[in-house]
Every structure is written in structure tokens, then in C-alpha cells.
Amino acid sequence: MERRSSFHWGLLLPKPKLEKKAKQRQHRPTSFLPDSPVQVNLKMADSYTSSRNGDVSPNGGPTNASSPSLVPTTQTGALSSVIRKKLMGYVGFANLPNQVHRKSVRKGFQFTAMVVGESGLGKSTLINTLFNTSLYPPKEPISPAAERSKTVAIESIGADIEENGVRLHLTVVDTPGFGDFVNNDDSWKPIVENIESRFDSYLEQENRVNRMKIVDNRVHACLYFIQPTGHSLKQLDIEFMRRLHTKVNLIPIIAKSDTMTDEEVMEFKQRILADIEHHNIHIFQAPTYDNEDEETIAEAEEIASKIPFAVVGSDTVVVTPDGRQVRGRAYPWGVVEVDNEEHCDFVKLRQMLVRTYMEELREYTNDYLYENWRTEKLLSMGVAQDSSVFKEINPAARLQEERVLHEAKLAKMEAEMKMVFQQKVQEKEAKLKQSEEELYARHKEMKDALEKQRLDLEDKKRKIESGRPLTPEKSSTTRKKGFLRNT
Ligand SMILES: Nc1nc2c(ncn2[C@@H]2O[C@H](COP(=O)(O)OP(=O)(O)OP(=O)(O)O)[C@@H](O)[C@H]2O)c(=O)[nH]1
């Protein structure tokens, strides 16, 4: 079932804090002198990296722009260094978070939440309350004659929602029938199968030739509704969480907490946490990072202290005794306000699920839960990783190896060039020899012709000198002819 709506529902994907800082920096006057240290930094950009915040030296103190401090990086040892410099003007990379922000807003977001819990624990009501809309239509009462399903069903509802220009495609996966049977031993099975089939579908999309349009249907968070018994977790709860904690971000919730007193809620929470710890169940915890500010750390700690969230759901507006209109549940003894942190943990749940950690939930699903599942799946299919691909490489040995390879390549090129040169020389020599022989033959021919000519001339000379006619045959004939004439 797909629904489209455009309304205000409390989702505020906060702009990165850096954006504000970047804007402040943008308006700061810059001292960009021609030979300012910024230019020096830019020239060194090929071999060195500027520090992330640009104003703290490696030992924590402020850096001097004119005296760069070289810090060897752990990865590359003595081969390269990181230089930390204070920029003297606005360069622009502080605007990177804004670029990411703009791109994300343009692309929109996808989020899939699963709700699991026994029938009537207020799952639909809480989802409607969380997203401030009637995502789930009012239920029609089931007639006693109607046949109930004998297995856990999986139903999803999709909605396109928008807040302050940010679009979110929300999918809620419901699991009607969970825990509703006499024997609930295998209630978790269809749910695990559904989560894994979504992983399968994602893996199949990743393996396609064209991966331009990957649709992420993986379940990013599972709200597990615990019955407000006030005792401890039931076998069904433990079994479900044990089976699913490695496949989905589990967020345990005490349903209908308005049916218990504050003390009962506190004690119940402690028993649930003890059970969770005893069974080594991993539930989603708000992550904290080293470089975060005190406010963020305090917020994460406060959220963590409320787990499991004791919530009250209501999508109807009631009037408080002091005349305020609030979302809540009206009782003869007073009004339980959904959005009042003193009445229940709904606000903290929304903060964890939507306002502060939606992206973390998506990231954890992708980077750990899906990744582990994928590794196991591929290994079970016989796909093995070539460990040599990731072997650690000593930079000095690598350099030496590269040098040897380079030298071998040079030697090979030199030998090839020599061979080509020798070949050319041989060809040239052969040609020269041939033309020499030809010349020699011609020379000999000419010499013979000249010799013959010389001999002829000498013969003629001798004849002239001896007074003999040069052409005796001719003169005798003439004489003979003359003699003949005279007689
Ligand atoms: N006291 C109390 N009642 C609640 C709360 N949330 C929901 N209800 C009521 O509990 C009843 C069942 O709520 P649903 O939201 O339909 O419960 P569900 O878990 O979706 O039920 P199924 O769809 O059958 O699984 C309704 O009458 C709600 O008004 C709550 O926080 N406190």
C-alpha cells in the first residue's frame, strides 16, 4: 500500500553543524596577500595534506603559519608527512558539508522501520503518533466468525512525506499475528526470512551490471514492543531478540507505559536490561564519537539512559485541565501527554529514531549488519577472499621491489634497443658491401675498356712511327685499282 502525503510531522534532519561555521567563515574578512602562507600550502598540496580543522598543531597547540610542522603519518611511515597549517583566508572546502547536504536533500531519503509485538500493544497507534499522520487507517473490528491467519504475516505500508523541503520515503513493515498463537515457538522465523530476503534483494541489485537505481528496502530499525507486564522479558521476547539482533537494529519499547506507575516502569526497565545483557543481545545504542561536543555527548547519554523506551501512543488531541490541547490520553485522574518528557519516553524515542540517529541507523544497517550477512552468505556460496590482496606492505620493501622492477624494465628496453641498432647496422653494412661490389665491378669494366683502348692507341702509334699506313688493306686496294687503271 503506497500513500503520498505532504505534512509536518516533526522530522527535522538537522543541517550539519559545520554548515553554520562555514557560513561564518565565508563572511570573515580574508587576508589573501600574494605571498601569503596559504599559497605556500597550496603549492605543497601534492605531497602534503592540510589538517581537518586547519588550526590545530599535531601536539594540540596553535600552529604557526610560517613554520610548518611535519608529522609522519602512521600508515606510510617515513615516506610521507602531514603538514598542519593554519589557513589565512577562506579557501572553500569548509563548504563541503553544505554540498553533501544539498545533494542529500535533492536525492531524498529512504527509511524502513519494522514494528513487532503482540496484537493490541499499540504498534499502529505509535507509528501514527511518531510520524504525526494516520499512516495506519482505523482498524475494523474482526468478527468472531472470521478465520484468523495461522502464521505471522508481513505487511508493509509506504508513504512519501516531506518536511521543510526534505523528502522521506518511509516504509513501515508490520508483522500481524506475532505472538498471537497457542504455540509461538517459530513466530520469529517469517520475520527473519523477510529481513534476509530484503538483504538478498539488495545484494542482487548490487551485483547487477547497471547499479544506477538501487532501491534500499532493507529494514533499518525494528521497534520491538514489550508487553507492560512489570515482570521481566517473556521467553518469546528473548527468543525473538536473540534471533534478530545480528540482522537488524533492535529498539526495545515498553508498550502502553501509562498502565504502569513511574516506579514500576523504572524497575521493569532494569529487569529488561538485565535480561538483555544476560542473553548477550545487542540492541541499538546511540553512538558517540571522540571529537563530539559536550552537548551531543550529553544528548546521546540521555537517550541511552531511557532505553528501553516506555512510550504512550495517541494520535488524538485532548484538552488538559489547564486548557492546553495536546496529543495524549485522557483519564478520569488526568491526561497523559505523549510529547511530555515527564510523562513518557516518546520524545526520546522519536529523537533516536528520526531526529538524531536515523542516518546512523541506516549506516549501521549497511556497514555492519548487511556487511556481516553478505560475508556469511558469500562464504556459504563458496566465494573466497584472496587474502594476499590485503597483505600488509612494507613501504621500503615495496619501493625496493618497484626499483628492481624498474631497473629490469630499463635493462630489457636497453637490450631491445641494442638489438634493433645492431640489426640496422648489419643491414646498412650489407647494403654498403653490395654497392661496393657493384662499384668495383663497374670500375673493373671501365678499367678493362680503357686498357683495351690504350693498347689500340699504342698499336696505332707504333704503326705511325714505323711509317706503315694505318689502314693497309685500304691503300693496297687503291693502288691495285690505280695500277689497274694505269695499265
Ligand atoms: N493505554 C494505552 N492504550 C493504547 C496505547 N497505544 C494504543 N492504545 C490502544 O490500544 C488499542 C490497540 O492499539 P493498536 O495501535 O491498534 O495496536 P496494534 O498493536 O497495532 O494492534 P494489532 O494491529 O492488532 O497488532 C487501541 O485501542 C489503542 O487506542 C497506549 O500507549 N496506552
TrEMBL record:
<dbReference type="GO" id="GO:0005525">
    <property type="term" value="F:GTP binding"/>
</dbReference>
<dbReference type="Pfam" id="PF00735">
    <property type="entry name" value="Septin"/>
</dbReference>
<dbReference type="InterPro" id="IPR027417">
    <property type="entry name" value="P-loop_NTPase"/>
</dbReference>
<comment type="similarity">
    <text>Belongs to the TRAFAC class TrmE-Era-EngA-EngB-Septin-like GTPase superfamily. Septin GTPase family.</text>
</comment>
<keyword id="KW-0547">Nucleotide-binding</keyword>
<feature type="region of interest" description="Disordered">
    <location>
        <begin position="17"/>
        <end position="36"/>
    </location>
</feature>
<feature type="compositionally biased region" description="Basic and acidic residues">
    <location>
        <begin position="450"/>
        <end position="466"/>
    </location>
</feature>
<dbReference type="GO" id="GO:0032156">
    <property type="term" value="C:septin cytoskeleton"/>
</dbReference>
<feature type="compositionally biased region" description="Basic residues">
    <location>
        <begin position="477"/>
        <end position="487"/>
    </location>
</feature>
<dbReference type="GO" id="GO:0005938">
    <property type="term" value="C:cell cortex"/>
</dbReference>
<feature type="domain" description="Septin-type G">
    <location>
        <begin position="107"/>
        <end position="380"/>
    </location>
</feature>
<dbReference type="InterPro" id="IPR016491">
    <property type="entry name" value="Septin"/>
</dbReference>
<feature type="region of interest" description="Disordered">
    <location>
        <begin position="450"/>
        <end position="487"/>
    </location>
</feature>
<keyword id="KW-0342">GTP-binding</keyword>
<feature type="region of interest" description="Disordered">
    <location>
        <begin position="48"/>
        <end position="74"/>
    </location>
</feature>
<protein>
    <recommendedName>
        <fullName>Septin-type G domain-containing protein</fullName>
    </recommendedName>
</protein>
<dbReference type="InterPro" id="IPR030379">
    <property type="entry name" value="G_SEPTIN_dom"/>
</dbReference>
